Amino acid sequence: MRKGMLKDLEELSTAGILDQATCQRITEYYQRKEGEQSHNWLYLLFGTLGGLLIGLGLILIIAHNWAELGKTLQTVIAFLPLVIGHGLVGYTLWKKRDSLVWTEATGLFTALALAACMALVGQIYHLPGEEDEFILTWMLMCLPLVYILRSSAISLLYLFMITQYCSLSHTWFGVGQTMVASWIPKNHYWWLFLLIVPFYYWLSKLPDRRHAFIGHHWAVAVSLLYGLWSVVDPLFGIDELALTLLMYMGFSGLCHQIGRSAYFEDKPLWQNPYLIIGSLGAIVLMLSFSFTWIWENLQRDEWTPLSPSSTLTFLVLLYGSVVLLLIQKGVRSNWRAIPIDAPLSLVFLLIFIMGAYWDPAMSAALLNLLLLSYGILYIYRGAERDHLGLLNYGLLIVLLLTAFRFFDEHIPFWLRGVLFVAAGLGFLSTNILMFQKRQRLKTREDEVA
Amino acid sequence: MKWHKWSILLFVLVTILHVALPVSWIWQSESSLQKGQAYKFKLRPTDPSDPFRGKYLILRFEAEEFSTYDSVTWEKALPWKEGFPTVYASLEADTNGFAIVTEVSITAPESGDYIKAEYYYYNRHVGMLGLTFPFNRYYIEESLAKQAEQMMWELDNAENTIAYAQVYVYEGEATLEGLYVNDQQIEEVVKYHRELELLPTQD
Q1: DSSP assignment string, A347-358
Q2: Each residue of A93-151: pLDDT tens digit?
Q3: In chain B, which residues have their Cβ closer than 8 Å to the Cβ of A122?
Q4: Which residues of A touch B4 (CB under 8 A)?
Q5: With 0-12 CB in 10 A as exposed, 13-18 as middle and 19+ as buried, what is A414?
Q6: Half-sphere exposure of A192 (CA within 13 A, CB side)
Q7: Chain A residue closest to B54 (CA)?
Q8: Is any Cβ of chain A less than 8 angstroms from the Cβ of B79?
């Protein structure tokens, strides 16, 4: 029962609109309902955990290699959990389709039983195939169950496994006569991800699946963060590396926009992985790019990153999305409502282009200034709102920047010294000004009182 | 109610798919075992750092190295962004029944036994084409795994020891039937050596 509701009931009782007995009955009703809901969640959790543990246990047992049993019996045992799983799912669809416990537990059990069956048949017949191929086949076979049963458990398993697939699958490529192994993921990840998006969207429409939806925010955000790597072209060189980092900056910008959208406005931070990834990602990338030598390596007389590549396509998509979302926010509400850190990725893009084509030293300097500004901004906001987390975040940015620059041998000692003194004087001046302002305000308040 | 019926129908289709896929693998393997020609592929010593990966032994074969000076074909076919291309190795048995690769081609031969392999590398200086056969993993019971692994390492130094994989080949598909050391299944050899205390017991 919401605290607000209790307060409202008290108010209505005081105003004489509701009598005490009615208020008591309303309170008891909602408390009972919450109790039932929490029990339902317990059943769901235990049921899902039970299904998961049984499925995993079966896989472990099967992995022991039952060489003594003979091929026929092994094959029968391989199919047994799958047949049981299908039976349970069939029963669920027929009689228990409204029960979350049944749909989640039986669905997850069947998904794991399928893996066990495929793995054991592979073992019995010594079938070839790498882990990434296994995961791809398994997940494609499980995907229909996500939609048929509307199972979040299988969906989360799917997201986890396609991310795992991304880390395992890679393309080998050769240069001349030398074989060079490269851990460049294959590009199947993206269409695998797109196949689960409708389910993610469908979850957003159901208030009673709120917890599953929150879980999916995290799974989707982390999966995308990892899977973005899979668009990198096999022609891996310094240009591609730069474009990849730029792509991640664009991704951070997009996450930031999503994290600041109306849906997440009133949500606590732990339910908003997009904002966390967006903000942290941008700061980490900018700190990485704050070194002059990186910009010097990027600069070319004739740098042509515009060769067709999947990385470039994603760059356009990501930054284009950031721009569109910013415009949408500005048009819908107010241009002033756009937070100052929202266009960070776009500013970075401009600095990047400047550094690549014109003056790398200027780009490095601007980026450091940008980082310092954002650090100070977060410190200021944290102090203003009395938010310790935000204040510490800002302090961390400034401290890291300070540490990086202090040990940056590419900047002459004298210049470092001058910059540090200037920054220190800046902080002290701001401190004095803020203190004086506060004193003036206090004096005025005392006079008014 | 409409979705209720559709979901059950879809589920039935999915069930058929879930069962059909592993059954198709079994069917293919059993077809090779029943109708295929048996070939013995001699094993070559494996890299000690990677012979046993979890549940299976990684196998390497002498026949995976094919001598050819046709650098024109093989250097053109070098993998580039595509992964390892599939090639076709034509097979014959020598006088002792061991498989030898007589030819490697980019397209499937029209007659004779052959297997699909991956084109791994080409060394023009020694005229060596490196292939990877698909039956390169052998699942073995955990309790025997370590000893089998040790046996594989020692192949190089073992005199009068011939280790080979028995593979059934049918229409380009190969199914690994068993791993043998001097015509005895490797599991039996390991158990026998363990009984004679010639091998340390598994921890």
Answers
A1: HHHHHHHHHHHT
A2: 999 888 888 999 999 999 999 998 998 899 889 998 888 889 999 999 999 999 999 99
A3: 25, 139
A4: 93, 97
A5: exposed
A6: 30
A7: A63
A8: yes
A341 secondary structure, DSSP code: T
What's the confidence (pLDDT) of residue A39?
Answer: 56
Q: Which positions 92-131 of A are in contact with B (Cβ < 8 Å)? A: 93-94, 97, 114, 117-118, 121-128
Angle at CA B100, nearest 5°, toward B96 and B103? 150
Distance of CA A67 to the CA centre of its chain: 44
Pairwise CA distance, residues A13 & A6, whole Å: 11
- Tell me the DSSP string of chain B: -HHHHHHHHHHHHHHHHHHHHHHHHHHHHHHHHHHSEEEEEEB-PPPTTSSEETTEEE--BGGGEEE---HHHHHHT--SSS-SPEEEEEEEE-TTSBEEEEEEESS--SSS-EEEEEEEEEETTTTEEEEE-S--EEE--HHHHHHHHHHHHGGGT-TT--EEEEEEEETBEEEEEEEEETTEEHHHHHHHHHHTT-SPPP-
C-alpha distance from residue B94 to each of A45, A230, B32, B40, B101 (Å): 62, 46, 21, 10, 10
Sheet of strand B52-53, all strands in order from the earlier edge strand to the far edge: B52-53, B56-58, B137-139
Name every chain A residue with its beta carbon within 8 A of the beta carbon of B185.
none
Residue A425 has pLDDT above 80, yes or no: no
Sort strands A171-175 and A178-184 into parallel, antiparallel or unpaired: antiparallel
| Cβ distance of A65 and B142 shorter than 8 Å | yes
Average pLDDT, chain A: 80
- B113 or A207: which carries more pLDDT confidence? B113
- Mean pLDDT across A72-93: 92
A324 touches chain B (CB under 8 A): no
pLDDT value, residue B203: 47
Query: What long-range pairs does A338-343 form, CB within 8 A, spacing at least 24?
Result: A339/A260, A340/A377, A341/A256, A341/A279, A341/A374, A341/A377, A342/A256, A342/A257, A342/A260, A343/A253
Contacting residues of B for A235, CB less than 8 Å apart: 81
B8 near A CB under 8 A? yes
pLDDT, position A12:
82
On chain B, the residues whose CB falls within 8 A of the CB of A97 are 4, 7
CA distance B74 to B124: 9
For residues A274-285, give the mean pLDDT.
90
Q: Residue A19: its pLDDT value, please?
A: 84
Is the pTM of the predicted complex or chain greater than 0.95? Answer: no
- The two three-digit tokens of residue B116, written as one number: 């699909």
**B120 and A179 in contact by Cβ < 8 A?**
yes
Q: What pLDDT sits at residue A176?
A: 42
Span A151-160, mean pLDDT? 95
Among B28, B30, B81, B138, the strongest candidate for a mutation testing the A interface, having the largest count of A CBs within 10 A, is B81
User: A434 pLDDT exceeds 80?
Assistant: no
pLDDT tens-digit map of A343-374 = 888 888 888 888 777 777 788 888 888 888 88
Burial (CB < 10 A; 0-12, 13-18, 19+), residue A351, is buried
The two tokens of residue A207 are 């208030």
Q: Is A150 left (phi over 0), alpha (psi -120 to 50) or beta?
A: left
Compute mean pLDDT per 10 residues along chain B, 203 residues long, and list them. 83 95 94 92 70 71 91 69 78 91 92 91 87 90 79 68 91 92 88 72 50
